[in-house]
């Protein structure tokens, strides 16, 4: 069993002084980050697919044993490059963007933990689970034998045996996510959301609520220790399962205001540095 803990992204100027040493240059952020945490979720790949040399550079600037979890380009998961979701285009991948993304991601080599399909919340009149599952299954059939895959949905009513069966059949991990739309951590596990030989946890929190308090991310602004303790307990339970080999857990700034501090607390709750 291996446990990797990290943040969603590393390119935050607000972290200079509180996480990165004062005066740190942005070109050094990743190398500095990798001295503190063993993994990172790549948020930027959701917005654009980087050049091959960028993926290669990330791998070169991190030590052996480090892990990356890039998010799939939103044209695939949201059907659009803009803020507006185009439901009819979700998972259609008409221009081959998924393959282009995977070609880049696999350049990370053994440092590629998995790729993450982050889906939005779909309103009932936009898309039904019955329409979504065949699309998801077709895509997972294409990619699950090439890379590990984690899938995040935000429709709690979609956490059904049919949905979980698709993930299990394709050996994909259901993302356990801390989000206002989703059940609590214990309930997600009880519903059977451990679906693969690895588990993926995302501590997202309530973006709108915390942005009402702060727009800078250099310090914790919400006391989430009790919530982190619950996630720590759940992760410890998962670690004890013989069918799970790896656990990846990531936090973003919107969870409590300062993702590095959240990760340190989570590592403490799990039982030590990771």
Question: Can you walk me through this structure?
Answer:
By secondary structure, the protein is of the alpha/beta class. The chain has one domain: TIM Barrel (Alpha-Beta Barrel), CATH 3.20.20. Strands 1-8-7-6-5-4 form a 6-stranded parallel sheet. β2, α2 and β3 form a beta-alpha-beta unit.
Briefly characterize the structure.
Helix content is 34%, strand content 15%.
Highlighted features:
274 residues; alpha/beta; TIM Barrel; two-stranded parallel ribbon; 11 helices; 34% helix; 15% strand; globular
What is the structural class? Answer: alpha/beta
Rg computed from alpha carbons, rounded to a whole number of angstroms: 18 Å
Structural domain tally: 1
Shape: globular
Span between termini? 12 Å
Tell me the CATH topology.
TIM Barrel
The CATH homology group name: Protein of unknown function UPF0759
Strand order of the largest sheet: 1-8-7-6-5-4
Summed up, the helix count is: 11
Give the topology:
Layout: E1 2-7, H1 29-33, E2 39-42, H2 52-60, E3 67-70, H3 74-77, H4 97-105, E4 115-118, H5 129-143, E5 149-152, H6 161-169, E6 173-178, H7 185-190, E7 198-203, H8 207-211, H9 225-239, E8 246-251, H10 253-256, H11 259-270
Parallel strand pairs: 1-8, 2-3, 4-5, 5-6, 6-7, 7-8
Helix pairs in contact: 5-6, 9-11
């Amino acid at each position: 069993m291996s446990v990797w803990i990290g943040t969603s992204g590393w390119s935050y100027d607000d972290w200079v002084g509180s996480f990165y040493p004062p005066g740190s240059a942005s070109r050094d952020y990743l190398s500095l980050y990798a001295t503190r945490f063993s993994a990172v979720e790549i948020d930027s790949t959701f917005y654009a697919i980087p050049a091959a040399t960028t993926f290669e550079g990330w791998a070169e600037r991190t030590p052996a044993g480090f892990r990356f979890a890039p998010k799939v380009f939103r044209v695939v998961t949201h059907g659009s490059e803009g803020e507006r979701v185009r439901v009819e285009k979700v998972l259609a991948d008409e221009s081959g963007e998924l393959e282009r993304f995977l070609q880049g991601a696999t350049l990370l080599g053994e440092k590629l933990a998995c790729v993450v399909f982050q889906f939005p919340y779909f309103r009932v009149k936009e898309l039904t689970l019955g329409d979504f599952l065949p699309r998801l299954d077709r895509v997972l059939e294409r990619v699950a034998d090439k890379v590990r895959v984690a899938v995040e949905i935000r429709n709690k009513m979609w956490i059904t045996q049919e949905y979980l069966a698709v993930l299990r059949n394709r050996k994909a991990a259901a993302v356990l996510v801390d989000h206002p739309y989703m059940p609590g951590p214990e309930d997600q596990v009880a519903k059977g959301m451990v679906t693969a030989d690895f588990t993926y946890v995302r501590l997202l929190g309530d973006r709108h609520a915390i942005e009402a308090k702060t727009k800078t991310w250099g310090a914790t602004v919400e006391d989430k220790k009790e919530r982190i303790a619950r996630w720590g307990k759940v992760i410890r339970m998962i670690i004890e399962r013989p069918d799970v080999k790896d656990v990846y857990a990531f936090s973003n700034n919107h969870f409590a205001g300062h993702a590095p501090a959240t990760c340190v607390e989570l590592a403490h709750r799990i039982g030590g540095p990771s």
